[in-house]
Amino acid sequence: MKGQVSLDILLALVAAIILFGILTIHNENLGANIEETNLQNNLQTILLDTYSAIGTVKAYGVTTIYTSPALENCTVATDNTSITVASGTESRTYSGIDLSGVAINPATFNCGEGVSISK
Amino acid sequence: MKNQKGQFFSLDFIIAMAIAVLALGMLLHFYELNTYEQQNARTQNELTLIAMNSSNILLNTNNCTAQTSLKNKGYEMHGCTDTSSWGTLTKADLMIPDEFNCYITKGGSPAINGCVDVLLANTPNIAVIERNFLERNLNILKSAYELCLDGGSCTLYTPAKLMVKIWK
Predict the structure, then answer these.
(1) What is the block-wise mean pLDDT of chain B (168 residues), using blocks of 10 residues?
(2) By the 8 A CB rule, do A99 and A81 touch?
(3) A108 found inside a domain
(4) Residue B96 in contact with partner chain A when CB distance is under 8 A
(5) Interatomic CA distance for residues B140 and B142, integer angstroms
(6) ipTM confidence score
(7) Dihedral of CA A38/A40/A46/A52: which sign?
(8) A83: containing domain
(9) Is B95 within 8 Å of A1 when comparing Cβ atoms?
(10) φ, ψ at A27 (rounded to 5°)
(11) Residue among B16, B50, B92 minimizing CB distance to A98
């Protein structure tokens, strides 16, 4: 008389392999997304910081030497109506703002570089 | 007894798998919720910063003006705002970017022609800032100013309330 043969262990192994495969694919996608999101968040932080510094100068009429947070291969470009922070193919922009009365020298600079902002 | 079958798999496996899937689902849901909250906080901070910046510009670009006799004494009219030109200001003047909406009031009435956007009921993130300030749209006389300093009847300024609402 034979004893019982259970497939539990085989089914569990198959399920574990499938789950592991799904998690690996998910992790790869997640890794790529996290890298992109981190870059976007960093650009957004630099944009807000630069915007805030220019806004303070515009409101209070002070002159300041401003240094933005540093980020590799990143530039900040300003003109009379916008601020753009870019790195590689990613960028963040605030447009439609009046910066005509504010002097930013130089108007385009690398992230982490000191610039003069005055009114 | 010869034809009696044994079990191939037990219910234990089904239960274990159900628990494993549930645990994984809860973990992913936690990550998703965490990411959403972070994004929400970032958006709210951005709106608050823009609202604060625009209110600073609004309250400081046109300070009250003092008559020559008062200016010559070295007085600066900080903390007092001349609102007579507010009506003609635009979003651009207040450094509110194109992608944002705004609604700005003084004493409950719209104060800026460029900021009368309609706020929809289901807007998820809104920054609201209220600031009290002193308003005076005429030149300030030295005699009136000194009367206030002396503790006499002071009618130089009108206390007013500015409210700035910013949303995407």
Answers:
(1) 65 84 89 88 94 92 78 76 87 93 91 88 91 84 79 81 94
(2) yes
(3) yes
(4) yes
(5) 7
(6) 0.80
(7) negative
(8) 8-118
(9) no
(10) -65, -40
(11) B92
